Amino acid sequence: MRFIILSSLLALASAFTLDAPTNPIAGEVTEIHWSFTATDPAEFDLFLMNSTEAFGLIAVLGTVLATDMGEIHTLLPATIPAGNDYQLRAVDHTNVDRVYAFSPVFTITAAV
């Protein structure tokens, strides 16, 4: 019971949120935006995940990103298959099991 309460309080303390990219296409540059507060971690890693798989890492999109940047422009690998099960995950760059935020699930269109 105490663990559940503590976990809930920690989640409330962080306001880090990831937005889903708009119309991402494999093999092209896409913009990824996030919002944060002063109490959020200063740095994080950004993963592209398959949201339907427990260990669905598709690509590492950024490492040790400065939270206060608020956005990055990154090249999505051209080998990513088209699909609607993708999600971004912001994690602690020293412990990838510590997840700061998930984006909403989104679609990636195949490379042209």
UniProtKB/TrEMBL annotation:
Q: Which domain of life is it from?
A: Eukaryota
The record's section on Pfam families has: Kre9_KNH (PF10342)
What residues does the Yeast cell wall synthesis Kre9/Knh1-like N-terminal domain cover?
A: 26-108
Keywords of the record, alphabetical order, are: Signal
Keyword Signal in the entry? The reply is: yes
InterPro entries for the chain: Kre9/Knh1-like_N (IPR018466)
Which range is the signal sequence, renumbered to this chain?
A: 1-15
Tell me the protein's name: Yeast cell wall synthesis Kre9/Knh1-like N-terminal domain-containing protein
State the organism of origin. Answer: Mycena albidolilacea
